[in-house]
Amino acid sequence: MRPALKSGLLPVWRDRDTLQIGIDPRRAIALAGMGQAVSVIGLLDGSRDREQVIAAASGQGIPVEATERVLTLLAAGGALDDFPASTLRAIPAPLRAKLAAELATTSLAHRDGDGGARALARRRAAIIRIEGDRRIGRAVARILSSSGVGQVQFVRAQTDCAAAGPPTAGTKARRAEPGGSAGRAEPAGSAGRAEPARVSRPAFVNQPDLVILIGRQPGELTMQLVRDRVPHLAVMAGEAIGIVGPLVVPGRTACLRCLDYVRAGNDPAWPLILAQIGRRRPEPPACDSVLAAMVAAQAAAQAMTAIEQAPTASPAANGTLELVLPDWRWRRRTWPRHPACPCAAHTVR
Ligand SMILES: [Zn+2]
Questions:
Q1: Ligand 1 centre and the CA of 337: distance in Å?
Q2: What residues does each domain of the chain span?
Q3: What CATH number does the domain located at 2-91 have?
Q4: What is the pLDDT of residues 253-275, one digit of tens each?
Q5: CA gap 324, 121 in Å, rounded
Q6: Are the beta carbons of 37 and 28 closer than 8 angstroms?
Q7: DSSP tag of 204
Q8: Distance from the alpha carbon of residue 191 to the mean position of ligand 1, in angstroms
Q9: Nearest-CA neighbor of 281 among 180, 191, 130, 184?
Q10: Cα 258 to middle of ligand 1, angstroms
């Protein structure tokens, strides 16, 4: 193991003998009695194993016990990463440099003791497919790619081309797929609605770990994902509301159709409304640049949680994260599975 000071923390002196690692009290730790041993800090860059750190410090006249004490205190305070040597070999230096900010953030946010190496490995191995609205979709793809996700595939929405009535202003009808604050798939047995003419999905070459669906998607496509057991995250932005979720883990959490069953239970008119909105959307959408960016960032964050931890670890599993402008706070809404939903047939026991 190769101890390294967490790179996102800056050492500062509190007094002549007390070194503080980090600035914000929610991250920082203070080490007293550091006057003599401070040069140990400079040795903690992940290039030496523990014994080499102790030997190098001894060479600078620092007793072994003092070095060990500093290492112990830093580790106990969560300010130290231990890079396994194998991790260093597995991540090429240029890639580590490129993703340094990602590693530093992950390491601090999740208190990972490996400098974010495990999280990065999971990102590198992940395939995430994005379908739907191009503006938000591309923003999500950019964030995921720059975060180190191995494969990000962006597929333009079927509805981008098949779109929604005669375009009135050039390409505008292709740009956005806003959708309202509710509803995507129609509940079985509800008033039928005309599906878009082109709903066929290209077969997956490699099955993605996660599909991000941006905008309202035809019910049969989302049910296909349920049947194929592909986790998927729904994302909507319109009517000045951003919604990220649910994150559907087929057979384990509420699916998009479950939500419509719940809505139909709350609002008897919902099936009729749903039947009218399959291919209609307001133009222009009420999704400005700020809302699009906030929704894209939240979607990317939940995708990353799903990849690094587990899909069910995201607060968007059995829930939606919602931002209703002009509020600045995301709020979570819980959505249970609905016993009448066909997804019950795919339950994982
Ligand atoms: Zn369901």
A1: 6
A2: 2-91, 126-346
A3: 3.90.930.60
A4: 999 999 999 999 999 999 999 98
A5: 35
A6: no
A7: P
A8: 18
A9: 180
A10: 4
